[in-house]
Known about the structure:
The chain has 235 residues and is α/β, with parallel strands linked by helices. 43% of the residues lie in helices and 22% in strands.
Amino acid sequence: MGRREASAENGSFTESYARWRGSRLGRITDKLEERLILEALGDVTGLDVLDVGCGDGALATTLARRSARVTGLDPDAHMLDAARGRAGAEAVDLALVPGRTEELPFAEGAFDRVVAVTVLCFIPDADRAIAEMARVLRPGGLLVIGELGRWSFWSAIRRIRGWLGNPRWRSAQFRTGWELRNLLERHGLTVREMRGSIFYPPSDMAASLLARFDPWLGRRFTFGAAFIAVCAAKG
């Protein structure tokens, strides 16, 4: 699920992304998650946007098509190559930079929007990562975090994979909506909105039957959501 779900499995990141997005479950799930993130970001026309952990550039190119000036950052050179290929194929301009979330190579207040989707759960020092994202955000700007929820069918399966030896899921940190809120507020950010998504178990049939109810549930609950989006403003 999401931009880092595929990278947690065996095989190359790009191949895993392609398999995930080619599946019915992947298409339905990614569409719901993307809609949630885009709604939280709002109108990005003419804004400087940083996509932290941009992966193969799917969200970054979408934002560029919406007339944002987009910078994508990722520690993986193969992912950045894939993002360049996607940007070229879609005829959009992206600034793609190698780097780590905990040490963003940008000046203070460089961006109007910062977005990070399924990134924090794989970073040991989440406080440092949030501090860096807040640092490069302009006053009045928005930070949008999309993370893997703690209490869901999906997280239960991931925990089992971790117990069985998968190194990525063994070290992953799943958080509740309130834990994400507290993390952001510790760094002086004001949470404006918090919504959940993906309330169905990870199966094609469940996604097909239940995805229509996801927006209604997500506006009311984060408990049980496999994906949680939080939008916070910098004062």
